[in-house]
Structure formats: structure tokens, C-alpha cells
Design a protein that fits this description.
Shape: globular
Helix content: over 70%
Number of strands: 0
Bound molecules: adenosine-5'-triphosphate
Largest sheet: none
CATH class: Mainly Alpha
Order of helices and strands: HHHHHHHH
Structural class: mainly alpha
Strand content: under 5%
Radius of gyration: 18 Å
């Protein structure tokens, strides 16, 4: 059971390290989490947003799995390979577009709450944007000092801890904590892979 969990975890981290779109989804999910933990939303709206985020991650991971499978089957140009990869990518695109529309609809529906949440939004921007920056730094493929990653992880954790006491939703705060952990693990994995390549 533990081994299965570890394999699945490795699959998730590998996708974040090697798929640019997955990194975009991860940072976008953190921004969704910051909005969800900043303004009071109804249960149905929270569930919908979290489900959309999970569905996009699922689709991107599956897209990555299909790409590997196709590359395993053929390294040459093949019309069926192209169709398979394009269809898998289209699945992610459809979900991502739908999520943007749903997110916008939820914000429009709660516009009065947004207008009444000035101080909460100011706090989310002041602490949340640096948190998003920490996650962005961790997932960027650029080579950097290990200390940059350490500062980003510790800085992100401190910012999350500062945001947590006044959160509008502990589920979104927990989601953001999970995203920070995934970003930290991806940074570590990328470093390990680089070290292996240089040996
Ligand atoms: N073996 C192949 N035969 C034909 N077309 C291919 C092949 N491999 C890739 N392609 C085309 O190139 C596109 C990009 O494929 P690639 O394997 O580079 O995935 P990617 O860049 O990781 O895609 P994504 O946009 O999902 O991140 C595919 O959507 C497909 O149109």
C-alpha cells in the first residue's frame, strides 16, 4: 500500500518537473486557493472549484502518461501518434477553459462579497502573491542555488502560517499547503535528476 502511494507520488512529482503545463496548473491552483481562502464562498462553490482543480491535475497527469506511452510505441512521425497526443491535450484544454469560465461565474455571482471583503483581499494580495512567487520559484526549471529553494520553501510556509488564522476556508488553505509541498518536492527531484546527469 505504502509502495503504491510512493509510486503515485513519484508520478505526480515527475509530471510537475517535466510538464510545463502542469507547472502552470499548479501556480494557477494556488491563486484559486488564495481567492477561495480570502472570500467567503458557499459550500457548492468551494466544492466545484476544488473539483475543477483536481480534474485539471488528473487530466494533465493522464495526458503526460499518454505522451509517454505514445513515445514508447513510436519515436517516428506517425499520424495516429499525433492524433492520440492532440486528443489528450484537447481534453486538458477543454477542462482548463471550463474552469476559467466557472471561476469567473463564481466571482461574478459573489461580486458583492468581493466588494465587501476589502481588508481580506488586501491581506491575500500582500501575503498571497509572495507565496505564489515562492511556489513559482520552486517549480521553475532554471538551475539555481539550493539556498534559493530552501528560502522559497521556508518563506512559503511562513506566509501560509500567517494567512491561516484568518482564512475563509481551511480546505483551500490545506490545498495551498499541499501545493507548496508538491512544489518543494518537485524542486528537490529536479536537483537530484541534475546531479545524476552530471555524474
Ligand atoms: N510521434 C509523433 N508523431 C506525430 N506527431 C507527434 C509525435 N509526437 C508529437 N507529435 C505532435 O507534437 C505535439 C507535441 O508533442 P510532445 O510530445 O512534444 O508533447 P508536449 O510538448 O509535451 O505537449 P503538451 O502541449 O501536451 O505539453 C503533439 O500534440 C503532436 O501533435
Amino acid at each position: 500500500m505504502l509502495a503504491s502511494f510512493l509510486h503515485a507520488w513519484n508520478g505526480l512529482i515527475h509530471t510537475v518537473v517535466h510538464q510545463r503545463n502542469m507547472r502552470v496548473h499548479l501556480v494557477s491552483a494556488l491563486l484559486v486557493g488564495l481567492v477561495g481562502s480570502g472570500i467567503e464562498l458557499g459550500l457548492a462553490e468551494k466544492v466545484t472549484l476544488i473539483f475543477c482543480v483536481l480534474l485539471i491535475f488528473f487530466a494533465e497527469i493522464l495526458n503526460s502518461a499518454l505522451e509517454h506511452l505514445v513515445d514508447l510505441a513510436t519515436r517516428h512521425f506517425d499520424e495516429k501518434a499525433r492524433l492520440t497526443k492532440d486528443a489528450a491535450a484537447a481534453g486538458v484544454l477543454v477542462l482548463a477553459t471550463g474552469t476559467v469560465v466557472i471561476f469567473a461565474a463564481i466571482l461574478v455571482h459573489n461580486w458583492q462579497t468581493v466588494l465587501d471583503s476589502g481588508p481580506q483581499i488586501a491581506r491575500q494580495v500582500a501575503l498571497g502573491l509572495p507565496l505564489a512567487l515562492c511556489v513559482l520559484v520552486l517549480v521553475l526549471p532554471r538551475p539555481r542555488s539550493v539556498w534559493v529553494d530552501r528560502v522559497a520553501v521556508v518563506g512559503g510556509a511562513v506566509l501560509l502560517a500567517a494567512l491561516a488564522p484568518r482564512t475563509a476556508s481551511s480546505v483551500f488553505t490545506a490545498m495551498n499547503a499541499g501545493l507548496l509541498v508538491v512544489a518543494g518536492a518537485a524542486a528537490r527531484q529536479r536537483r537530484l535528476e541534475r546531479a545524476r546527469q552530471h555524474r
